[in-house]
Design brief:
8-stranded parallel beta sheet; TIM Barrel; alpha/beta; 8 strands
Length: 227
């Protein structure tokens, strides 16, 4: 699987092409879907551009993106301030505005309660692992494990999570994004790329947009596939 991480918690000042509104996220989702992406990960924003889990704002974003790419998995982040479990509990009636999957950062305070809240509203749980020795059992509804790694600790983290038997998405951030992507593609793990993870192409120049990053990621992924 190639996932596009479209915006993250970045601000508009960091990149002119960063998609923040539902309409811009839908446009970028359509562009990367045309390049072979089967999952998009995004951070819904409120009217002032701050990350949000508030039901109506999440629903507007998800429904707008889903209308543009009806066959693609939509994943959202839960890494925002506030009573996240209570906000997620309000997602039950959202229907087309409910995400397919939501990420939960293992080892954060209350992460198990957050995973349970997602399971109760029929949203898949994507566990995010960034440090070793923090995950020994899987909450109900866990669909995959996302490993956020550096080139130095990727092997250690993979040794921890691979025995759990779930699909693994391996990625890095900023200067680690492309080296970890190449390593993950070599191992045939799920991969992701987008403006959340890096603003730059492998040669160091600033990417034009998510589509340019994904096009390069697709070429990289194909070059590492077994012949």
């Amino acid at each position: 699987m190639l996932q596009a991480c479209l915006n993250g918690s970045r601000t508009a000042e960091e990149h002119l092409a960063l998609p923040l509104t539902p309409e811009r996220l839908a446009e970028d989702a359509a562009d990367v879907a045309a390049l072979g992406v089967t999952s998009v990960h995004l951070h819904p924003r409120d009217v002032i551009g701050a990350p949000t889990l508030v039901g109506p704002e999440v629903a507007t974003t998800i429904a707008t993106v889903r209308a543009a790419v009806p066959g693609i998995e939509i994943s959202v982040s839960t890494n925002v301030p506030g009573n996240r479990a209570t906000l997620i509990a309000s997602w039950g009636p959202l229907a087309a505005g409910r995400p397919d999957v939501a990420s939960v950062h293992v080892a954060e305070p209350g992460w198990r309660d957050l995973a349970q809240a997602l399971h109760q509203v029929n949203v898949g749980v994507e566990l995010v692992v960034e440090v070793p020795d923090v995950l020994t059992e899987l909450p109900k509804g866990t669909t995959r494990i996302t490993v956020t790694a550096t080139p130095d600790n990727a092997e250690t983290l993979l040794r921890q999570v691979e025995p759990l038997g779930l699909p693994i998405l391996l990625h890095g951030r900023n200067s680690d994004a492309w080296p970890v992507f190449t390593y993950a593609a070599t191992l045939e793990h799920h991969v992701r790329m987008g403006l959340e993870d890096t603003l730059h192409m492998p040669d160091g120049r600033k990417a034009k947009n998510n589509a340019e990053l994904i096009a390069m990621a697709r070429r990289n992924q194909k070059s590492k596939a077994p012949s």
